Structure formats: C-alpha cells, structure tokens
Amino acid sequence: MQIPNTRLERASRRRATADTILDRLGLFERWRPLGSPVLVGSVALDLVVEPDIDMEIYSPVPSVADGFAALVPCAELPGVRNLRFANALDLPDQGLYWRLDYEFTPSEVWKIDMWWLPDDHPGPRAADLVTPVRTALDTSTRDAILAIKEEAAARGESTQGVWVYQAALDHGIRTYDEFRAWQASTPTDGLTSWRPRRG
User: Could you report the per-residue pLDDT of 14-36, keeping only the tens digit for each?
Assistant: First the structure.
C-alpha cells in the first residue's frame, strides 16, 4: 500500500478512517431517531490531523435518558474503551455531552465528541461554521491549516481548530510559529461566533 506523502493525502486518509469508525459504531443511525445529527469539526472539513470526530445533534428537547439509551449499546462493541457524559444544559455550552474513545488500532485511539443541543440553541454552533469555512478554503489555505495542525501535534501541543482556521483564512498565517505569535495577541478563550471574511 502506498503511504500518503503529502499533508492533503494524509488528511484524506484520516478522513477515511473517521468514516470507517462512524460506520462501525453506527452513530448517525443511533442518533437519528432522537434528532438531527450533524458532522462538524475537522472531519466535516477534511482537515483531520488529530484522531478526533465531532458531532452535534439537534432536537427540541435533549434528554439524558434517551441519549444514554442510544449510546450505552456502543459500550459493548469491539474497540470502544470509554463512554463519558457531562450535563452542561445550565452552562455556557447549553447542551448534553457524550464522549466515546474508540481503539481503531492498538496505537490509534479516536475521541468522538457528541453534543446534543436544543433546536433553539443560541449559538455559537459548530454546525453553522462548516459551510462558510468549506467555501472559503482553497488548496493553499487547506495545506497551511494542515501544516499548522501537524506541527502542533508533532510538538505535543493542542490547538483548537476554529482559531487555526481564523488565523489562516483571515490573517494569512501559514506556519505554526506564525500561529503561536498571532495567538499570543488574540483572545482565544471561550466560545466564538467567528465566520470567514471571504467565501
């Protein structure tokens, strides 16, 4: 098998892995009876570096009991190592949160974050960011974002994707060192309603 040798190829391979995991766990099928599941984050944008999958689910009234009923069966599936929960309905995130840790290979464990939010959630909502970012991306900015994220991962430093996208798309940032300098002078704590300036 040919090993991917460009950032774009590596991201494509990671996206394919994410799709395989979603299929194995049947997460969209588990959530659809309860609401409208939406793939968000780096997987939805084909900008995957870290082994993370993000989903949001929307319905009139999120339910702790119904969420557990949908997800607890996943705990019995091969490869599922952890299932975690947090109730943040009365916190800024205003939703219910579940996380699955899935062992794709012994050396590759994926984190799957799922937020169940009410339809009238005031935002910001990751689902609202996917289309504007995809529209604004081109080959150059896509490669720059992947370069920044891969360098952060190589250094063992965490980055939040939305800030990398903002830096690359709105401010011309192209390297991780440039990103760190930009981040040092930019408030990047908390939630953001940022949208790309172009696209």
Answer: 999 999 999 999 999 999 999 99
